[in-house]
Amino acid sequence: MRPFTWKFLLATATLSSSRSCSGTDGTETCDDHSALLQSHVTSLKSNVISVLDQSSQLMNFPKMASLTDPTKRKTALAQFEITATELALNAAAVTPVVVEVCTATSELLRDTVMQAIIDEHDTDVAMLANSYAAFGPIEDDRLAYVTALNNAMAVVYGADGTGGLVEDHIQCRLAESNACVRCLTCEETCTEVTTTCEIAATQLEILHNEAIETVSRNAYCDNGHIMPPSSEVVITLSSHELNRPAFEAYIAALAVFQDCVVQRHTVCESCEPTEEPASASLLAMYEEPEPASAPVSDLVCQNHTQQRADCNEIQIQLQAAQCQSRYLATNDMTLYSAAFLDAVERYNHQKASVMIMEADRKVEWDTLERVICLLMTLTNETDGSASSLSTEQQIEACQSDHVDTSHLDINYLPAPDMGDMPDMPVSPCDDAFIEDAYTGIVWCDGITEHLERLDHGLVTECLCTAEEPDTPESGFPWELGPYLLFNAGFELNTAAGFEVIGAGSDWAATTGEGQYTGQLSPWVTVNLPELDAAFGLTGSDSVAQVAWAYGDPQGTLDVEMHGDEYPETVQHRFARVGGYVYRNAQGFVVALKEISPSSDSLGQDPQMTLYFAAPQEVTHSLALEACPQMFPITLGRLEDGGAETYCWEYSGTISFCESGCFLFRTVTHGYIAFAVTSAPSEHIDWYANHGHHYAATDQQGADEHSMHTGHDAGLVD
User: Fold this and answer.
1) What is the average per-residue pLDDT within 149-155?
2) Beta strand pairing call for 230-233 and 483-487
3) CA angle (481, 486, 492) in 5-degree steps
4) 8-state DSSP, 585
């Protein structure tokens, strides 16, 4: 024990009143000087600050600036506690001046340093809340994006999924098909009537020739001129009666032909004009002049052509609207994911920083309470009593009593999950869209020859350059954790609480909700440092082995049956989700820890943060070797991310799982493993780059040197 400690305050008094001690009248004493110091201390606390700052050069009492500086406070308080302890142990020499200074110093620590800690706590709470509040506007933007995209898709598919341009196009094509059928029917009828008329014309010509007699004359010479051959119809009186049947047959055929010509005009003129048949010249010999053609708008085949053009235009509009929806989705999804992931990164950095500061503040508050307690043991002005057994007990109580720091607790909400966006619209040029949007279209009643002859079908030209947005690699299966470890709240090694049963491969637990059982992973020797310090374990209770307790599916069923109204406790959450079981060298369970992504720990304080490295793929054969049995997923976020089953691997089978890892079988990525690792270095780098003090604790995975010094190695205080 250093003898100069108790003399510190006396030296302080001399420094503060040295001019009075040098008086020449011989009447002044140092007691008078101490009284002067006492008046200064009791009148203004700023004098105490001055006294402390002056005397800090001679003793281990820190300057007030160090006590109010968060980056130096921990070291300063540790120094202060040593000095206060030495003063308390040498309390026999305590004078009224010492008592006064200790009292004023205690008040000053409460009013200034403790208030500074509370102010820093309030500031961090506000900063954390502000950082979390950034998700609100981003969520509002997401809802606006969803509305805009739904409106764009409604143009294509209709507001309720039926209608829109898709339905307009289908109905138009159905009308086109009907018009096509009418046109073809008209053309077929026209062809049939034309054929009938051609036959009637041929028959009429035959009967015409039979009804008359033609006399032919060969070429001859007449007065030196050559006369050409000729023919003429010669009907004699005697042949009239004989020719009556043939003439009557001709008259009847003529009537049939004339009726056919009228029918042909009626049918064919309603169709779109087509090329004349090969026998048209034969009909022309007998047909009467054709009536005026029907208006174009009344022509069946002309209407069919316009219908096809209208449908092609609707199809082009449909393709453009679908492509625009795809552009909109790509842009909005990119904007939302970028804003959301940036907010997550900022919030997680803020949360990690505040967690460090919270841990430091609790340590500092605890130290302050002990320092004040030690100082107050010196306020007994009766010389000699301070060295009594009672004083020793008071000093021991100051060093061992529990200090309540719950008022410095901060609730750390997990970053919200990324919100859902509508499915990415497919390209209008893709087969998937064609199969979906054009289902139910019938072309010309399904007659292939009509399709080919009349050039029916979809517009084949299509162009849409909108690409798929990059998939944001956030959450599972791209990352896992970090997870906070909490005390599971069981009485250990008893049937009324938690116990390992069987050959050490199973567990059983009793909670207020019921009894649960589950399996344990193989026990493995622990290689993570600082577990005992984090869990507050010493001696025979030190951790030797660890196993993972797989949750009981009954716990999940209990929650599903009761929904949000289920009164879950920390014990039930352990039974439902699972957790780590630690036992000592004698095989007794000494710690039981459940995991949670947030500090909403149902009344528990986190004792450690568990970080995981980036996922690595594992072959099917290696996964089966490491985990012959896989277990159901117990965390909804993992299941939503595509996890199907999992196991805790700590056997050394997978080379990169030196400190253990979680192995998952996933829907999209096969088998992947997340290995336990130290805190990401970018956390430390971020604190340094942003001017934050990095108070290394076991919660942050700092190295041993950093834990001892209270600062990360390489950072300047």
Assistant:
1) 93
2) unpaired
3) 135
4) T
Q: Using H for helix, E for strand and C for coil, what is the string for 113-165?
A: HHHHHHHHHHHHHHHHHHHHHCHHHHHHHHHHHHHHHHHHHHHHHCCCCCCHH
Report the candidate in 28, 27, 30, 39 with the shortest Cα–Cα distance to residue 10.
30
Residue with tokens 């869209």, as numbered in its chain? 433
- CA dist 485 and 531 (Å) reads 11
CB 321 within 8 A of CB 155: yes
Cβ atoms of 282 and 198 within 8 Å: the answer is yes
Cβ neighbours for 418, distance < 8 A, ≥ 6 positions apart: 337, 340, 341, 472, 474, 475
CA distance 509 to 499: 7
Q: What is the three-class DSSP state of 376?
A: helix
411 - beta bridge partners? Answer: none
For 444-476, how does the pLDDT look when each residue is reduced to its tens digit (9 = 90+)?
A: 777 766 666 666 778 889 999 988 877 667 778
CA within 13 Å, CB half, 611: 16
CA distance to 209, 216, 222, per residue, from 228 (Å)? 23, 11, 11
Write down the pLDDT at residue 356: 76
The percent of residues in the chain predicted with pLDDT above 90, rounded, is: 28
**At which residue do the structure tokens 């390992």 appear?**
500
CA distance 368 to 110: 8
For residue 530, the 8-state DSSP code is T
Three-state SS letters, 645-669: EEEEECCCCCCCCCCCEEEEEECCC
With vertex at residue 81, the alpha carbon angle to CA 76 and CA 82, rounded to the nearest 5 degrees, is 100
Residue 312 tokens, joined? 């092609």
Write down the residue that tokens 């449909």 correspond to. 318
- Residue 91 to residues 50, 480, 600: CA-CA distances in angstroms? 23, 55, 46
CB neighbours of residue 17 within 10 Å: 19
Structure tokens at 145: 């994006």
Q: Residue 572 CB: number of other CB atoms within 10 A?
A: 24
**Residue 451, SS3 per DSSP:** helix
Report how far residue 166's alpha carbon sits from residue 158's, in angstroms, rounded to the nearest whole number.
8
Please report the DSSP string for 602-616 in residue order.
TT--EEEEEEEPPPE
Name the nearest CA neighbour of 647 among 715, 548, 500.
Answer: 548
Give dist(CA 306, CA 298) in Å, integer: 12
Q: How far apart are CA 567 and CA 602, in angstroms?
A: 11
480-495 confidence digits (pLDDT tens): 888 888 888 899 999 9
- Residue 496 DSSP symbol: T
Taking only the tens place, the pLDDT of each residue in 610-624 is 889 999 999 999 999
How far is 232 from 240, CA to CA, in rounded Å? 16
Does residue 320 register a pLDDT over 90?
yes
Q: At what angle do helices 96-108 and 30-43 cross, to 10 degrees?
A: 20
pLDDT on residue 579: 94
Q: Is 668 exposed, middle or buried (0-12, 13-18, 19+ CB in 10 A)?
A: exposed
Torsion angle defined by CA atoms of residues 267, 270, 272 and 277, in that order, rounded to the nearest 10 degrees = 20
What is the separation of C-alpha 448 from the centre of its chain, rounded to a whole number of angstroms? 50
Question: Which residue did the predictor score with more confidence, 342 or 5?
Answer: 342
* Phi, psi (rounded to 5 degrees) for 75: -65, -40
Residues 217, 227: Cα–Cα separation, whole Å: 10
